[in-house]
Every structure is written in structure tokens, then in C-alpha cells.
Amino acid sequence: MKSRSAQKHEFPKQFSLKGRTVVLRPFGTEDRKQMITFAGTLPEEDLLFLERDITQPAEVDTWLRDTLEERLVTLVAWEGSAIVGYATIDRGPCAGHAMSLSFAWL
pTM for the full model? Predict the structure, then answer.
């Protein structure tokens, strides 16, 4: 049986966005430190709208675990060696029936 998150696209994907070259790829454990750094660059008022307090390492660890266990799908946008954005789809307890989306972008 195929995983419900079987990739339909090849990653990483590189594209141009408003004159910037961005690489999009799935969130992984190697992104932990840079995600915390990215969170520290977000304005405090933007952090209020995120479902998780991604400025806290323990919360990023939980997020990573949820992503690796396929409860979430998270893509991270990189510009050079820095994370510049992410998008997460939360499948919710009834996968396929209800989802939520959160994202942040510099």
C-alpha cells in the first residue's frame, strides 16, 4: 500500500519569485536550527497568527516529529543558506475531510 503522502513532485524545486531564486523542499531534521533562526526574524505580530510558537526549540522538535510521522506536510523555502518561508498543511484527525494551512514568508 502506498503512503498517503507519496510524492507527486520531485524535490527540491527551484524557481524565481519577484527576482529572488528560491528552493522549495520538504521540512527535515537538518532544517531545525535554521527554522529557529528564521522564526527569530519574524515580527512579533506575525508570530501571533502562527499555530505553533516556532521560536521555541521544543515546539520545532514537535513540529518535525509530526511532519516525519506524516501528520503534517511542511515545505520549506530557502534562499541561499537561509529559510525565507514555509507552508504547512495539517491533515487533521479526519484526513481528507478537514485540513488547515499555515505559512510564513519573509
Answer: 0.79
